[in-house]
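W.,

You were right to be curious about this one. When I first looked at the sequence I had no strong expectations either way, so I just let the prediction run and decided to look at it fresh. Below is the sequence, 309 residues in total, followed by the output.
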Amino acid sequence: MEIQYLSHQQIDRKRWDQLIGHAPGGTLYGLSWYLDAVCPGWQALATSDYSRIMPLTSRRKYGFSYLYQPLLSQQLGIFSHANLKLADVDEFLRAIPAVFKLVEITLNDHNPPGTLFPVGKHTTCRLNLNIPYTQIQERYSENTRRNLKKATLENLRFRTNITLPEFLELLHKDKSAGANILALRKNRPALLRLVPAIINRNAGMICGVRNRHGDLLAAALMGQDRLFHYYLAPAMNDEGREARAMFYLIDRYIHLHAGLPATLDFEGSDIESVARFYKGYGAAPFTYISLKINRLPWPLNHWANRRMK
């Protein structure tokens, strides 16, 4: 299997997206336009027939080029028209150009871990939507049912047309760790590229929950492709937290899409309390892996692990 390095300009985007659209592990994150939004100028590894491809999401800092996991892109790695073997993963990892002195990325859940480098294991939670809503609801945990009961007393309204400015404003009011990361000034350009790209391609929406006065209490950027719905980025204010608005938002989203041949990927989590929240809707855990390769000489290798974030 001959693997070629491709600069951004050399990538055949049509063939790339065709593979992502049919690959067993193909995801929204791997589509060319999505990569353009979260990592402009991304590069790639690919076989000559585009039967196996791997995006290279790179940055340059302190004089070094390195690979990183872009914002709102939980899993990338190698995409293939057929199931991959350990040797296939190893071959692609060997082909990562030496110019990338540090590699900190996640692979997708159809990538075996390989044998060349140490890997970490991570968890995402997924809910099968391909059954009636009543059957999904029967699997809700007691805690989820209790919080939904409280939410229904608040006269909340679920909406699917929340605007980007409203979402960004709510994001800045949310004091959770995840919202604080998304609200950083350095991440704003990626959000301003990604959200319109998703909405303009009918690849998702910003849905939200308003109170009886029309005030936005909670919202979530949702992505969608042929197989999955993605809970990409939630935001909520203090009133929404008190009203259990996010419990209500997710339940209404499930109700809207129940019975369709798709899976809702909650995108996490390794944090036990967050995973418990997702599992409260009947979601099951799935494992994917992260990869770290440090080719920097000592002592830069220790310094870079802390500084190149």
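Here's what jumped out at me. The mean pLDDT is 92. And, maybe more interesting for your project: The domain at 3-122+288-307 is CATH 3.40.630 (Aminopeptidase).

Coffee later to discuss?

I.
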